[in-house]
Amino acid sequence: MKTDIEIAQEAVMEPIERVAEKLEIGADDLELYGKYKAKLSEEFMASIQDRPDGKLILVTAINPTPAGEGKTTTSVGLGEAFGRMGKKAVIALREPSLGPCFGIKGGAAGGGYAQVVPMEDLNLHFTGDFHAITSANNLCAALLDNHIQQGNELGIDTRQVVWKRCLDMNDRVLRNIVVGLGSKADGTVREDHFVITVATEIMAVLCLADSMEDLKQRLSRMVVAYTFDGSPVTAGDIGAVGSMAALLKDAIKPNLIQTLEHTPALVHGGPFANIAHGCNSVRATRTALKLADYVITEAGFGADLGAEKFFDIKCRQSGLKPDAVVLVATVRALKYNGGVAKTELGTENLQALEAGIVNLEKHIENLQKYGVPVVVTLNSFLTDTDAEIAYVKNFCEERGCEFAISQVWEKGGEGGIALAEKVLETLEKKESRFQVLYEDSLSLTEKIETVAKEIYGADGVVYSPAAKKQLARLSELGFSGLPVCMAKTQYSLSDNPSLLGRPEHFEISVREAYVSAGAGFVVVLTGAVMTMPGLPKTPAAFGIDVNEAGQITGLF
Questions:
Q1: Measuring CA to CA, how many Å separate 537 from each of 343, 524, 541?
Q2: DSSP for 298-312, written as a single string
Q3: How far apart, in Å, are the Cα atoms of 474 and each of 154, 508, 521?
């Protein structure tokens, strides 16, 4: 069997101008990055704002397992299937981070015959958006430390600098560092920290901003430090906004590429879902809705993280209203949740399937709370048996969900037609009555506890003394009206990654909270989730190389 990168490298791509023609985008509306990548011009995006919106379809999944679920693969394959059926469709996805590419997860372009291409470009640098975000973030950090060095006119307490530097790489030794060592001219000595670029507030700001004006307003509101009397200091206060916006002027424009079957794909932004809000940019999604009759987008990791934040943060802020949700699962992953070892997942085991399907059940229940019709799809594996598939199908239909098999990894768009037909049928039969989970008027702790109890299934929430003080202070500062962005492990509905299936009788532990005032949410750290990941003992980087012809190998 060919690897994903081999399939991608054998693909015959169309020039990006020809892909754009399918959406009635002219050559003058594109800003080219070589033959197969382009950004959409600001003038073009402004010209289509009065068009009606297409249907918005969110793809999400059960909690990820080592067995694999194939959420992005399903998103891409569904878009390809719509194309084969003569439907005008666009896929709207996140950009991959270099951290997972060189770490443990690998690339994020889909898989098999359901991929977006050029795959290597997308996974490595792409159009430079993440570098621009990294540079803007670190420019803000440099201006902050320079303000302190040059007299500290604002009275910043160096023990309360909350703005962190960033790098788009997994590098655990940078989590906690000391800066300013040396002579007096080298700055003030203080503890500092790095986060991965996709966990930065600037990434969230870029993905939630709807214009350059909105971007600058959001950048200006970002809290970077506190004064000795506890007042917040913003990026606007230290004069960082204009220069950061200049670095981001191209990064704010959505990127256009294609699938293996030449379906257009807008790939833009990429906040992690376990430590950030996990959705592609609002601008890309809104633009896609003006360009096509059907827009397929996704949210990161399981529905307890990505979908919840898509609904309660992205949709709340942008006014987007999804028309249907596709919930991805695999028989293998459900059996893994039922206690089967990874090496035994290929053997029929209805007892384990019954034990593990409770994870799928909880995600179905959660999605239905938002009032959006749900279609469950099983990403097909050769080892799936008829009895196992029938069990899952009956389980879903008993809970009011449509069901379809997806074979897009093996067959591309052809393998997604059954799913596409079921999605179309659902859109025609069932009206979305979308609603957010909680009201803005609830307190921060009430919002945290609503998510913990309603989505995770927790009995309650335990706050560290530090978290209690932080939440109280954020409320005093006027941030209680913001939604919460829960930073939690992706591997479990709980904050303990070892608790598979549908955990019961547990509490969520909140250890820290801080405001992302520019993004417009309060980040709540639970469990041991890290905002700067580390590399595994055998990182994926060991297997990546490039030959004399410039062809990359081993990327995925």
A1: 21, 29, 11
A2: EBSSSIIIIIHHIII
A3: 20, 20, 11
Give every residue of the chain whose pLDDT is below 50, as ranges: none
What pLDDT is attached to residue 297?
Answer: 97
Residues facing 40 on adjacent strands = 30
- What residues are paired with 403 via a beta bridge? 376
Angstrom distance (rounded) from CA 447 to CA 117: 40
Q: Bridge partners of 327? A: 60, 376
Is 66 one of the annotated binding-site residues? yes
Contact 218, 252 (CB under 8 A): no
Which tokens go with 415? 């393998």
Is the bond preceding 118 in cis, omega lying within 30 degrees of 0? yes
Taking the C-alpha atoms of residue 60 and residue 367, their distance in angstroms, rounded to an integer, is: 10
Q: Which of 74, 52, 20, 54 is nearest to 326 (CA)?
A: 74
Q: Which of 60, 73, 197, 330 is catalytic?
A: 73
Contact 80, 263 (CB under 8 A): yes
In terms of C-beta density within 10 A (0-12 exposed, 13-18 middle, 19 or more buried), how is residue 535 classed?
middle
Please indicate whether residue 381 is annotated as part of the active site. Answer: yes
Q: What pLDDT score was predicted for residue 553?
A: 84
Burial of residue 297 (number of CB atoms within 10 Å: 0-12, 13-18, 19+) = buried
Work out the burial of residue 319: count CB atoms within 10 Å of its CB; fewer than 13 is exposed, 13-18 middle, 19 or more buried: exposed
> Annotation-wise, does 288 bind a ligand?
no
Cα dist from 376 to 311, 395, 403, whole Å: 18, 10, 5
Check if 310 is active-site: no
Q: What strands lie across the sheet with 507-516, from one edge to the other?
A: 460-463, 507-516, 521-526, 484-487
Task: Look up residue 69 and give its amino acid.
Answer: E
Residues 100-118 have pLDDT tens digits of 889 876 667 888 999 999 9
Instruction: Look up 163 and say whether it is catalytic.
Output: no
Cα of 456 vs its chain's centroid, Å: 19
Is 286 an annotated catalytic residue?
A: no
pLDDT of residue 92: 97
Catalytic residue among 94, 216, 309, 362: 94
Gap between the Cα atoms of 110 and 107, Å rounded:
8
**Is 94 tagged catalytic?**
yes
Q: Which of 114, 273, 288, 355 is catalytic?
A: 273
- Answer yes or no: is 201 a known binding residue: no
Residue 65 labeled ligand binder: yes
Q: Which one is catalytic: 409, 479, 506, 556?
A: 409
The pLDDT of residue 243: 98
In this predicted structure, what is the pLDDT of residue 106? 63
Is 434 noted as a catalytic residue in this protein? no
